[in-house]
């Protein structure tokens, strides 16, 4: 009997998530593709691993047993890869990184150019995900590392299997149509009557800004709900409202928009998260060092804040 690591990973995710739909969403596959692969796993094993109860799929006793072993097998594969990398002192590796829009546009281009010059054997492949999803992808083993953000008003819950290294600290600025707020600084409480452009309440950024405004004594009047800061800034420049934008978001500030500082600055931290078992990987530590030094050169180091 030969077991596919790919199918074992799907079984592990089904065991964690409870439904094929949830497992498929977390692995970025269709539900039908996951069902087909799990059916093939049953054929590989030669025994029933699942049973349908209404619309749900439940693991049989054998299925649950194999899922527990799948956790151990996949962890062992990761440990073996790490041991080989350490034994060879390997710096010729490919790392898969989860990124979100402002980091991908504002920090990574310079950091990856520097990395290429210092450590030519390390290749970083990126996948853009919502900030809320990057850490989960690392915990599942889909990615080697990911950038995450954390706000004072919306602290992030960290998976216990992950560790994090802070690489940058950003300020949030008020983005307003030119001339509407003047040069500033401005208190957040002074913005209560303005129309706002902001991401939804389920997004990390959207929930953090809403919490900060409520702490300042007012609920937001949201006129336009958009997910990307670049889209929000374009709408601000067109005179449609105001928003908050981070230092990295200002990398591509459009004409027609002012970035006004807050009287009491709101900051957010940018960290790189990775599985605890990967801490000893030389290549991972080199990437973290380069990103952190690049952020410091851009004025986003923790010491500068």
SSE string: HHHEEHEHHEHEEEHEHEEEH
Any idea how many domains?
3
CATH homologous superfamily placement of the largest domain: Periplasmic binding protein-like II
Number of helices: 10
Unreliable parts = none
Query: How much β-strand is present in the residues?
Result: 15-25%
Provide the CATH architecture of the largest domain. Answer: 3-Layer(aba) Sandwich
Question: What would the average pLDDT be, to the nearest integer?
Answer: 87
Description:
By secondary structure, the protein is of the alpha/beta class. It has three domains: 5-85, Winged helix-like DNA-binding domain superfamily/Winged helix DNA-binding domain (Arc Repressor Mutant, subunit A, Orthogonal Bundle), CATH 1.10.10; 91-167 and 269-304, 3-Layer(aba) Sandwich (D-Maltodextrin-Binding Protein, domain 2), CATH 3.40.190; 170-267, D-Maltodextrin-Binding Protein, domain 2 (3-Layer(aba) Sandwich). Helices cover 42% and strands 23% of the residues. The chain has ten helices and eleven strands. Strands 3, 4, 5, 6, 9, 10 and 11 form a seven-stranded mixed sheet that branches. Strands 1-2 form a two-stranded antiparallel sheet. Helix 1 (5-17) packs across helix 4, helix 2 packs across helix 3 (31-45) and helix 6 (108-118) crosses helix 10 (282-297). The N and C termini lie far apart (57 Å).
Keywords:
D-Maltodextrin-Binding Protein, domain 2; Arc Repressor Mutant, subunit A; 305 residues; 3 domains; alpha/beta; seven-stranded mixed sheet; two-stranded antiparallel ribbon
